[in-house]
Amino acid sequence: MSDLLRSNDYRQWIVSVKARIQSSQIKAAIAVNRELLELYWYLGEQIIEKQQSAKWGDGFLEQMSRDLLAEFPDIKGFSYRNLRRIRQWRSFWEIDTAIWPQLVANTTEQGLKPSSPTIRSLLVKIPWGHNSVLLEKLSDPLDALFYVQKTIEHNWSRAVLTHQIESGLHLREGQAINNFAATLPMPESDLAKQLLRDPYNFDFLTLTERHSERELEAGLTDHLAKFLMELGAGFAFVGRQYHIVVDEEDYYIDLLFYHLRLHCYVVVELKVEKFKPEHAGKLTFYVSAVDSQVRTPVDGPTLGILICKSKSDITVEYSLRDVNKPIGVSEYQITASLPEQLRSSLPSIDQIEAELGGFDDV
Questions:
Q1: Which pLDDT belongs to residue 29?
Q2: How deeply is 205 buried, as exposed, middle or buried, from its count of CB atoms within 10 A (0-12, 13-18, 19+)?
Q3: Nearest Cα to Cα of residue 172 among 203, 141, 187, 193
Q4: Please, what sign has the CA dihedral across residues 225, 230, 233, 237?
Q5: Taking the chain, what is the end-to-end CA distance rounded to the nearest angstrom?
Q6: In angstroms, rounded to a whole number, what is the distance separating the alpha carbons of residues 19 and 13?
Q7: Alpha-carbon span 81 to 243, nearest angstrom
Q8: Residue 332's beta-bridge partner residues?
Q9: Each residue of 142-169: pLDDT tens digit?
Q10: Which residues fall within 8 angstroms of residue 111, CB to CB, at 6 or more apart?
Q11: For 68-83, how does the pLDDT look when each residue is reduced to its tens digit (9 = 90+)?
Q12: Sequence spans of domains, the chain
C-alpha cells in the first residue's frame, strides 16, 4: 500500500478521479436546482390559477402545505411561508409575452441574448435563494432581469448579489460620460462603456469629508478586494503610483489595472475635487504614455478613467469631445465620513510613514 501511495501514476490518477467526481457533484447540484425551480414555477402557476378560477382564498395554502409535508416529509420547500413566496415569485414574473422581446432588447447591452426563449429559462440557472433576494429587494422585473443576467455571467454569490442590488448597480453601470464611441471600434466601445460606473460607491472607506487624494488612493488599495468588486469583473491590479519616464521626467500614475475581458490596460486617476478640463489633458497624457511604453502588440487600446468628487456633465462633454484617447469620467461617493473634529486625532498617511520610517535601520 505504501508503494502505491508513493506512485506518481496513482497520485495523478486519483487527482483526475477526484476532479471528475467534483465535476459531477457540481453538475448534479445545477441539475437539482433547475428541477427544483421548474417545480416551483409549476406550483406557482397552479396556485395562481386555482385562486383565480376556484376563488380559493389564502387559507388553502395552509392546507396545501400540510398535505404536501405529510406526503413528502423529507422534501423542504413546502412550508406555508415558502408556498406564499413561490406564488409571489411566479406573479412577479407574470409578464405579458408581448413585452418580453422589449425586455430582452432593453437588456441586450448587459449581455442578455435575444435568443433567450423564456424568462423561466434564465431564472432556473440561479439558486432559489438568489431568486428570493430579487423578490425582497426589487419591484421592477426589468431591474431584476439585469441582476439575473449579471449573476449568471459572473457567478455571484447571494451576498455579492445583495450588495450589488443595495448599491444600485443597475442605475450606475454604463452611465459615465465617455468618448468611447468616437475612439474605439465596435463592439469594444460598448463593452468599455459597460465597465464604467457613475457614481462609484466607496462606502467601504472611512475618510473625513475633506480627505486628500493620497488618503483616497491609500484607502482604495488597502481595501483592494472591495475596490475590485466595485470596479467590476475583469479588472486585475497592476500597480499604485506606477512609474513612467517621459523625456527624462518622472511621472506617477495613481492606479494602473489590466482588464482581462477587453485585454487592455486601464489608467485610473483620482481627484478629490470637481472635474476640471485640465484633468482630461493629464489623463490623456498618461494613457498615451502607457500605450507607448507598456502596451504590447496583443493588447487593445489603453483606457482612461477619471474618478472625481463631482463634475459638470457639460464641462466633461466639452473636454472629451476632441480627445483622441478613450476616456471616461465618473464621480465617487462616500456616504459615511468621519466627523471632521476627529481629523486632528487621527494620524495622517505622511505621519504614519514617517513613524514607520524610523524602523528601517533596526
A1: 77
A2: buried
A3: 193
A4: negative
A5: 53
A6: 10
A7: 59
A8: 200
A9: 899 999 999 999 989 999 999 999 999 9
A10: 149, 153
A11: 999 988 888 899 999 9
A12: 2-171, 175-339
What's the predicted TM-score (pTM) here?
0.76
Residue 174 burial (C-beta neighbours within 10 Å; 0-12, 13-18, 19+): middle
Q: Which fold would CATH assign to domain 175-339?
A: Trna Endonuclease; Chain: A, domain 1 (3.40.1350)
Q: What is the pLDDT of residues 282-334, one digit of tens each?
A: 999 999 999 999 999 999 999 999 999 999 999 999 999 999 999 999 999 99
Dist CA 8 CA 289 (whole Å): 50
Pinpoint the alpha helices (H) of the chain: 2-6, 8-53, 59-71, 80-92, 100-106, 119-123, 128-137, 141-154, 158-166, 169-172, 180-183, 188-195, 213-222, 224-231, 277-293, 313-320, 349-357
301: DSSP letter: P
Cell 504614455 identifies what position? 289
Q: What residue type is 21 in one-letter code? A: I
Cell representation of residue 77? 420547500
Which residue type, as a one-letter code, is found at position 176?
A
Residues 335-351 pLDDT 10s: 755 444 444 444 544 55
β-pairing verdict for 177-178 and 235-246: unpaired
For 234-283, how does the pLDDT look when each residue is reduced to its tens digit (9 = 90+)? 999 999 999 999 999 999 999 999 999 999 999 999 999 999 999 999 99
Residue 90 and residue 131: Cα distance in Å, rounded? 11
For every residue of 61-120, DSSP letters joined together read HHHHHHHHHHH-TT--S-SHHHHHHHHHHHHHT---TTTHHHHHHHTGGGT--TT---HH
Q: Is the dihedral of CA 182, 187, 190, 196 positive or negative?
A: negative
Spatial CA neighbour of 328 closest among 177, 218, 221, 209: 177
Q: Which of 321, 318, 322, 232 is nearest to 268 (CA)?
A: 232
For 256-267, b where at least 16 C-beta lie within 10 A, e where not — what string?
bbbbeebebbbb
